[in-house]
Write a structure and sequence with these properties.
mainly alpha, about 75% helix
């Protein structure tokens, strides 16, 4: 098995006698495959993993979206599937992704179905992806399905990026404020404290409080740092190990002011986009809903979609079950109702997804604009307060002299 995933570099000559070279991940079929392409191999050797370790980051969802889009483009142009893998792999900079694609290519060229080949890599291709590829292969419209999948992944990643943008901005500002405040307390305040010691007068309460904070930070900064790191680590571990903790976090996030509404809209957009993509691919509604539940991203919507799946499988209309769940907006329910009546459910879900993705985009812009006037005064109070505390004794001494 290890040999199948090891990358081998080959050199040889093509039909015209020109020297050529490339890479392959399975030496057992390497020469046979190359001979089919009219290449006479002169050398095959194991490729060093050094460059992969230095230049190859992990394979992200954005990488798989790029791979899907390029593969769909190749197949739409009439390029055979196996050759499409080779062309896409040649144009990639991420060695790990390149190795993954070449491994899939070898599996497919060895007689396995594309869906079966990617199911062997669940860490990169989820059930939704595999099921849609399988549906595309069964229907003989793989290139169309890959195009839909690429569009779905691109829109999903855009949605995630917007949410991250909304959350990262205030977090970044808080981190900067914490770093600046710590530097002031550890480096600047002690300098002022030496000056204040020569005054021989009692310091103002505010200044004394800041001096005490500075002394604490100088003496116990490592405890403070350990406490923050420990709290973050403990929180992450609790989320990994406790389903109740994860569920509680999901429910709490939806109740947060401003941010909760943003996450709510993004969950609705994800639901509509995923269901539209799977249903348009010819996947039965109940099976499509099961895939959607796994991609919900929030336990509130996961539980609601799971219940909707049970209701629909027992004969209840999708819009009726969505209304009973109490988590979906009326507009989406009405659009689903129209889609069911007109037989265009996938098209109506696509419109709903587009609408809510735009709502998320606008909400992110609005949140960013709202944060700026809130954060600037916050920074002014925190950092400006420390500076004022240092100058209060000087002002008090000036008034006494006057």
């Amino acid at each position: 098995m290890a040999a199948a995933n090891q990358v081998f570099a080959w050199e040889g000559t093509d039909k015209s006698g020109r020297k050529t070279k490339g890479e392959i991940t399975n030496t057992n079929i390497a020469k046979a495959e190359l001979r089919k392409q009219g290449i006479n191999t002169t050398k095959i050797k194991k490729k060093s993993a050094g460059l992969s370790l230095l230049g190859g980051g992990k394979i992200t969802a954005t990488d798989t979206a790029l791979f899907t889009r390029q593969l769909a483009t190749m197949m739409k142009a009439g390029v055979p599937l196996v050759q499409s893998f080779e062309i896409v792999a040649d144009g990639l900079d991420n060695p790990k992704l390149k190795t993954l694609i070449l491994t899939i290519r070898d599996d497919v060229s060895g007689g396995n179905a594309f869906a079966a080949a990617i199911r062997a890599h669940p860490e990169h291709f989820d059930d939704l992806f595999c099921n849609l590829v399988d549906a595309g292969e069964q229907s003989g419209a793989l290139e169309t399905m890959l195009d839909r999948l690429a569009t779905y992944q691109e829109k999903s990643e855009q949605l995630k990026a917007k949410i991250k943008k909304a959350m990262n901005y205030p977090i970044a500002v808080l981190v900067v404020a914490g770093i600046v405040s710590t530097l002031l307390l550890v480096k600047v305040v002690p300098q002022f404290e030496e000056i204040f010691a020569g005054f021989g007068a009692e310091l103002p309460e505010f200044t004394q409080m800041v001096v005490n904070m500075s002394r604490f930070m100088q003496e116990w900064w490592w405890v403070f740092l350990f406490a923050i790191g420990g709290a973050i680590f403990a929180f992450k571990e609790a989320l990994k190990r406790s389903k109740a903790m994860r569920d509680g976090k999901d429910r709490l996030m939806l109740k947060l002011p401003v941010m909760g509404d943003l996450l709510d809209k993004s969950a609705v957009a994800r639901f509509a986009r995923t269901l539209s993509t799977t249903f348009a691919a010819g996947v039965p509604l109940v099976d499509a809903l099961e895939s959607v539940a796994g991609a919900a991203g929030n336990v509130v919507y996961f539980d609601a979609i799971t219940q909707i799946t049970e209701d629909v499988s027992s004969g209840i209309n999708l819009n009726t079950s969505m209304k009973q769940s109490g988590v979906f907006p009326n507009m989406v329910i009405q659009m689903v109702s129209i889609g069911e009546e007109s037989g265009a459910l996938d098209a109506m879900l696509d419109k709903a997804a587009t609408y809510y993705e735009e709502q998320v985009d606008n909400a992110v812009d609005g949140l960013t604009a709202l944060m700026e006037p809130i954060i600037m005064p916050f920074l002014g109070v925190v950092i400006g307060g420390l500076i004022i505390a240092m100058y209060l004794p000087i002002f008090s001494m000036g008034e006494a002299v006057g």
